[in-house]
Amino acid sequence: xxxxxxxxxxxxxxxxxxxxxxxxxxxxxxxxxxxxxxxxxxxxxxxxxxxxxxxxxxxxxxxxxxxxxxxxxxxxxxxxxxxxxxxxxxxxxxxxxxxxxxxxxxxxxxxxxxxxxxxxxxxxxxxxxxxxxxxxxxxxxxxxxxxxxxxxxxxxxxxxxxxxxxxxxxxxxxxxxxxxxxxxxxxxxxxxxxxxxxxxxxxxxxxxxxxxxxxxxxxxxxxxxxxxxxxxxxxxxxxxxxxxxxxxxxxxxxxxxxxxxxxxxxxxxxxxxxxxxxxxxxxxxxxxxxxxxxxxxxxxxxxxxxxxxxxxxxxxxxxxxxxxxxxxxxxxxxxxxxxxxxxxxxxxxxxxxxxxxxxxxxxxxxxxxxxxxxxxxxxxxxxxxxxxxxxxxxxxxxxxxxxxxxxxxxxxxxxxxxxxxxxxxxxxxxxxxxxxxxxxxxxxxxxxxxxxxxxxxxxxxxxxxxxxxxxxxxxxxxxxxxxxxxxxxxxxxxxxxxxxxxxxxxxxxxxxxxxxxxxxxxxxxxxxxxxxxxxxxxxxxxxxxxxxxxxxxxxxxxxxxxxxxxxxxxxxxxxxxxxxxxxxxxxxxxxxxxxxxxxxxxxxxxxxxxxxxxxxxxxxxxxxxxxxxxxxxxxxxxxxxxxxxxxxxxxxxxxxxxxxxxxxxxxxxxxxxxxxxxxxxxxxxxxxxxxxxxxxxxxxxxxxxxxxxxxxxxxxxxxxxxxxxxxxxxxxxxxxxxxxxxxxxxxxxxxxxxxxxxxxxxxxxxxxxxxxxxxxxxxxxxxxxxxxxxxxxxxxxxxxxxxxxxxxxxxxxxxxxxxxxxxxxxxxxxxxxxxxxxxxxxxxxxxxxxxxxxxxxxxxxxxxxxxxxxxxxxxxxxxxxxxxxxxxx
Length: 889
Fold this sequence. Notes:
Layout: H1 17-27, H2 32-39, H3 43-50, H4 59-68, H5 73-84, E1 117-118, H6 129-140, E2 147-151, H7 158-169, E3 177-181, H8 188-199, H9 204-210, E4 216-221, H10 227-240, E5 244-250, E6 260-263, H11 279-282, H12 286-295, H13 308-317, H14 322-330, H15 337-344, H16 376-382, H17 387-395, H18 400-409, H19 418-424, H20 440-448, E7 452-454, E8 462-464, H21 466-478, H22 482-501, H23 509-518, H24 520-533, H25 535-543, H26 546-551, H27 555-567, H28 576-590, H29 600-613, H30 616-632, H31 636-652, H32 656-672, H33 676-693, H34 696-712, H35 716-733, H36 736-752, H37 756-777, H38 798-814, H39 817-830, H40 834-848, H41 852-864, H42 870-883
Parallel strand pairs: 1-3, 2-5, 2-6, 3-4, 4-5
Antiparallel strand pairs: 7-8
Helix pairs in contact: 2-3, 2-4, 4-5, 6-7, 8-10, 12-14, 13-15, 18-21, 22-24, 22-25, 24-25, 25-27, 25-28, 27-28, 28-29, 28-30, 29-30, 30-31, 31-32, 32-33, 32-34, 33-34, 34-35, 34-36, 35-36, 36-37, 36-38, 37-38, 38-39, 38-40, 39-40, 40-41, 40-42
């Protein structure tokens, strides 16, 4: 986390001369050279004062500077007092700030004073409360680590975190808290001398005697500038000062025994599904909070509602890296957030640091580089000019094989597991990863350098920082290996999908769906690249995904992928069983968006391929899908034949789950012919078989069908209760298609029971879901149908007929027979399910009293084999009697 640069006072309200001089000079708009010329003081003197090298300057010098800065009154008094500093044993007046980076020995301090803190002031942090609390606890408990290293990428906020932690823990260190910024080119004696100086001693024996039994904390910043000398110094200090604890920051650990390494991770960013959230919700994510705080410094207006999706996307693209967020927010002075995303979303690595970067804020005091070029000029030279340079600095710390591993792991777009890393890092001669290669050493090294974040304890807990991944991809492209690595990545993802596919049809369905959700971005990128460079791998991947695509409402996209890959001539010679599964996937997904009739030949072809191959599992699946498609085109008898054939095949092969599936399908056919008692028996068998096999989804589908049976029997309250139970379970399972159908059952039961307000709420939810599905197929929907008020009638999805049925029943209960007739007519025209069409025609005939409707109803019943239920025949009795014919079947 980077700090606020506002010249905040230090502990107890004290601000030192370096901070005051720099603040007044910048407020006057003067450079160091201009202030020197105006005051008659040498520029080197000004520079040394701002860096804290001159602890007690001449009063005349300070007076000249005050005159040149035009200070007066209390401001001048505070400036002069800060230069004088407190006399040993004397406390500064409360209204006159003072400080010193080297404090007096404990024996000379007044009693009952706080431990001395010779550090830059703490800064305001966003999103680091947990880090500060845990680190402060680690440094104040016994026993605890003597050396704690904060490691991470440049700009992740190591220095600011270290300062806040040190100030938070200061009360536990009666020996005081002191700090030193390591300078470039420092050697061992430099680092040791500077460290002893800030601790209040000139020699180790003297320091050991002074701090004996008095816990003391030393903060070392930027230790990567002199790793060897720092390690040597800390080894000596901790050896003679057992009460000393050290908190260091750097791009890599010090490497001493007992060191506790604390990787500083970027700030948390909102997930993609939070893009539509309001500003209050987005503001709870630390990366967003930092961006908006920094944006407020360059423009008055907070992000508008239209900018919020771009804001969430920006901080995700920046990977939550505080330096990147601050650099991007600074550009908000000229561009709105949408423009920032469009202009810089793909150029994060090109973000440049300011000319005078506050990389180590507040550290303008003594450095360890005694007698060597140091100070702001040297620091500035070491600071990366762009984020690319910052990442490159850490990249160069890796060994060649570690760099190669990083380039391979950069192919993962989101989180990944140890097993995936193992496969990705496998030897080229062992593409299937049959020879295990332990990836932990290289992962540990990447974590040590702050290049890799580890979140949570789940399998998919590893993630490269976005800037690191982008840089590694650039390196792979520059080395001519990007295409090969992307092919390897697609193979790894395809193997994961193949291992997961079997669980998508069993009791482990929720876990399997979640597993694929975790790698959804990698699935998308693998398909995109492999479809062009390696279509056979892309086909293997896509053939495993139809169930997942269906559960996640991506049936249109999935069907398009499968059809494209099957049509690619490079996959024509693929394994026939693989092509059969892909072909069946096309048909399965078509049923979800009303295109089942188009893919009826596709399902028949898949069934033939499985039968020729003797693949029982494939044949069972193909018969189930074919049966579902046949229902959509009204071929109910053949659909029943497919279900009965599947039941026999499952029984011969001892397939309990497939027995339950077939019984569930046959239960619907019993409903079709009006044998509700037989339907209940079959559904009881489904529940029993599914429970035996731990098949929760099948049990839920049985609950849904039981709700429909209860509705058709007129037990509306039971139908609502059972339906809502199934809807809740389907929401957890992630099956939007079935959920919408069951929601329709609930809405119909409510409408038929006269519970209009509740039915209207269900209608709103159904239409919202249907509109989302319609938007995928029809980005520019046509005008709404007059008087129907149904936004998706033009699409013709299955929910349209159900919504119209609900509206018709509501109108009928209100006594508006004309409007009811219109809605029932719309339901009859739009219904995908012939049972729904029959129900709509019954309602239309009852509403209009038109005997001609009975002729149409007769034809539908004859074509589909549907028999009217007793209550439906009762509604039509008077009408059929007036027509003079027999009751409709």
